[in-house]
Amino acid sequence: MEQFTQMYAALGVSPAVYEYGEKALERLRERFAEIDKIAEYNQGKVIAAMQKNRVSAACFAGTTGYGYDDLGRDNLERVYADVFHTEAALVRPQITCGTHALTVALSANLLPGDELLSPVGLPYDTLQEVIGIRESPCSLKEYGVSYRQVDLLPGGTFDFDGIRAAINEKTKLVTIQRSKGYATRPTFSVTQIGELIAFVKSIKPDVLVMVDNCYGEFVETIEPSDVGADMVVGSLIKNPGGGLAPIGGYICGTRECVNRCAYRLTAPGLGQEVGANLGLMTSLYQGFFLAPTVVAGAEKGAIFAANLYEPLGFKCVPNATESRHDIIQAVELGSEKAMIAFCAGIQGAAPVDAFATPLPWDMPGYNDNVIMAAGAFIQGSSIELSADGPIRPPYAVYFQGGLTWCHAKLGILKSLQEMVNAGLVDL
Ligand SMILES: *Cc1c(COP(=O)(O)O)cnc(C)c1O
To answer: Is residue 98 lining ligand 1, measured as CB closer than 6 Å?
Structure first.
């Protein structure tokens, strides 16, 4: 133990903070073992899909130009489709981020006169301009796609009566966001999402359902595509990229929906036939291979944080004991000073840019100043340990990621150390 105390002390974590963390960990053994079981199951799922599709060195070859007959790209899409149990998948470095993947999925499957319904309240910030909730050139609204929303009931449950009333002859696509994003509602389990899908399809059988799966992949043994979603969509610089994918997004779903997405992403008539892989295939395959265990490490970090901060009187969402359906942890710190201290700790634990000090700044597109801590190998990657939050009550910091559990642990211990140093907590 002496050796560990010294190692942590060299990294700026005092023996008191280290000991406090070890005590919390003793209570978490069983919980961590359950997470390892989920990772084991999902690891098997990914390996089986890779074996079935005969992944070989030839799949890792780079292609350029049009990318016709790109073996690696086409095969990776079959691997994704098999893991998500869908007919088809579109997995591309040409999909620049999660918002882009969601935009492709929506704009490919909604036509002028159609209506989009969100039965789970306001969608993620960046989608609001995509839909036209906030005006933007090229929004769906500008193209004649209307939007309707049904808010969650107090307590975060589905308003089934409101949803029934909102579905009409124009309703073409229902969008369900799995993770809470920056909202305060709970994240939905895949089972809950399945119930919601069954409900909307019982009212309108031909309605399409898309699930924004960001931050949810591999947290459970099933995905929304296992419970009736027509499309599941996400970012490769989050969970499924396993930290290695340097860019990209995915859309897994029915052949018909995915074909339309491919025509929208490239061009009508071209679809999935074009799109060179630019030499990124090894990262995309290997990242997907690592994703189940990377996600498990990040989830352990989130649970560890809740179990350090909650006993100190800080509200944690999710709380220290409840079940988890994504890798995001919110901690309400109560002051700007505490947010700065917390983020300094996360930054100070990073393998990259640890010397930088995160400070609140006036980020474009946000009403309040925002603070962000990230020391990532891939810029903006939030499967790597990162924390951010708007400087406004209740001064909540949202944090996620950690490519390894050990790094997530260090980051959280360092955050607590900064809080102690600033006189904000007493252990
Ligand atoms: C991150 C995220 C997005 C957008 O992804 P970007 O890669 O940041 O564009 C959309 N929805 C949810 C729930 C997210 O967490």
So the answer is: yes
